[in-house]
Amino acid sequence: MTYQFVRTPVPSRTLSPDQLEAALRAIGAERYHNLHPFHKLLHGGDLTKGQVQAWALNRYCYQAAIPRKDHALMARIDDREVRRAWLQRVLDHDGHGPDTGGIERWLVLTDHLGLPRDYVVSQDGALPATRFAVEAYVRYVWDNPGLPAIASCLTELFAPKIHAERIVGMLEHYDFVEDRVMAYFRKRLDQAPRDCDFALAYVLEHARTPEQQAQVMDALTFKCNVLWAQLDALYAAYVAPGMIPPGAFRPQEG
Amino acid sequence: MTYQFVRTPVPSRTLSPDQLEAALRAIGAERYHNLHPFHKLLHGGDLTKGQVQAWALNRYCYQAAIPRKDHALMARIDDREVRRAWLQRVLDHDGHGPDTGGIERWLVLTDHLGLPRDYVVSQDGALPATRFAVEAYVRYVWDNPGLPAIASCLTELFAPKIHAERIVGMLEHYDFVEDRVMAYFRKRLDQAPRDCDFALAYVLEHARTPEQQAQVMDALTFKCNVLWAQLDALYAAYVAPGMIPPGAFRPQEG
C-alpha cells in the first residue's frame, strides 16, 4: 500500500520540460528547509552548543539512512544503466575501498561536537519524529515507482546553497566548529550538483504525462516535508517551546 | 506481511557453528539444483539448441534480478561495514566503471545462442513461473530481517561445483557453445567463494539461538526452492510434457 502524503493537482495539460523544471524549482523556493527558522538560527550563530549537538545527532539519522534509501530505490529499478549511475551515491555516502565516505565525515562533526560516537550511531538520543520522517523517506522510495522515487531526490537542486551558507555561517559564528569538521559539506558541494543533474534529466525525460508530472511534483513536495518535519521537531524540542520528549538527547549545558 | 514458504523445525538446543554449517550443507546436498534432471540433461549434452536457448533466456531473468535483490538486502542493513562488503556483489553483477559486469557476460552467452538481445532483456519470452520465482526471491530479501536475507544467498556454497561442471559439460557436448561465451561461469568460480565466505561467516556468527538457526536453514531451503522451481518450469515447458505456456519462447527448430 502506498500512502499518499500530498496531492499535487494534475496539470490541465502536459508541461514542457522547462515548465516542469520551473514548477519543481518553485516547490523548492516555497518549501525547502533552508527557509525553516531553525536553519536561520543555526547559520546565524544563534544556537547554543547543546542545540547544535541536537541538530547534528538528529541529522545523523538522516545521513545514515541515505544509502538504505538509495539501495531501496535501486532495488526497484530494472534499467541496469540507471542503477550503475545511481550507485555513485552509495559509494559517496558509505564510502568504498579507502574512501570512508560521507557518513564517516558526518561522524567527524559529531565527534568534534563532543558527542560519544556509539551514542550517535545508536540513534537512541534522536527524536522519534526524526526517525519517523527518515523511515518514511526510505519507505516512500520502496513503495513508489522509480520515477517519483528518483524525483524525491531533487531537493539536491537546492542543497549546494544551503551547504555553502552553512560552512560560512557555522565557521564564523561558533568557536566550537572548525574548518576540518565541515568536510562533509564541502564534499557535498561537488557531489550534489552531479547527482541532481542526473536525477533532474531523468525526471524531465520520463515525466511525460500530466499525471506523471503531478506525481514528480508530489514526490518533491513529500521530500521537502521529510526535511522540514525534522527541523520542526528540533525546534519544538530544543528551541521553543523546548519540550524534549522522554529518552531524547538532553544538552548538558544551560 | 512475510509469507512463510517453508518451516524448518526449531532445533531442540543451540547448534555449534560447525553443526550449523553441517546442517546448511546438508540442505544443499539434498536440495541444490545441481540435482535437478534438467541440469543433468544440460551438462550431459542431451538438450537441443532450442532447449539451451530456453534455459539461457529464462536464467537471464534471475541474473538480471540479482542486483535488485542485493540492493533490497542492503536497504534493510543498518551496519555500514556489512553494506560496504556486500556492495561488491552489485559491482560484480552490474559492473562498475569499465567493467561491464556479470549480466552483460550473460548476454554474451544469449547473443551467441542467437537470441535477440532486446527479446532477452524484455523478459517477454520467459516463463511466468521463472519470473514469479525470481520476484519471490527479491521480495523475500526485502520482507525478512538481514540474517535470513543473508542466509538465502548461501546457495553460493554449492555454486562453484555446478559452474565447473557446466563449463566442461557444455563445451564438450554442444558445438554451438564456445569457450569465450562461458566467461560468466569462469568469473563466478572466483567470485562465488569470496561472496559465500562472507555470508557464511556472518550467518554462523549471528544465528545464535535455535530460532535464528531454524530461520537461516529455512532461508536456504527457500532459496533452493527458488532455483529448483525455475528448472521444474523449464523441464515441464521444454522437455516433458513439453507444454509451453502462451506467450513464452518457442524454439524455432524441431
TrEMBL record, chains A, B:
It comes from the Bacteria. It catalyses: 6-(2-amino-2-carboxyethyl)-7,8-dioxo-1,2,3,4,7,8-hexahydroquinoline-2,4-dicarboxylate + 3 O2 = pyrroloquinoline quinone + 2 H2O2 + 2 H2O + H(+). InterPro entries: Haem_Oase-like_multi-hlx, PqqC, PqqC-like, Thiaminase-2/PQQC. Pathway: Cofactor biosynthesis; pyrroloquinoline quinone biosynthesis. The keyword Oxidoreductase applies. The keyword Ribonucleoprotein does not apply. SUPFAM superfamilies: Heme oxygenase-like. GO terms for molecular function: pyrroloquinoline-quinone synthase activity. Keywords: Oxidoreductase, PQQ biosynthesis. GO terms for biological process: pyrroloquinoline quinone biosynthetic process. Residues 22-232 form the Thiaminase-2/PQQC domain. Its EC number is 1.3.3.11. NCBIfam families: PQQ_syn_pqqC. Ring cyclization and eight-electron oxidation of 3a-(2-amino-2-carboxyethyl)-4,5-dioxo-4,5,6,7,8,9-hexahydroquinoline-7,9-dicarboxylic-acid to PQQ. Belongs to the PqqC family. This is Pyrroloquinoline-quinone synthase. It comes from Caenispirillum bisanense. The lineage of its organism: Bacteria, Pseudomonadati, Pseudomonadota, Alphaproteobacteria, Rhodospirillales.
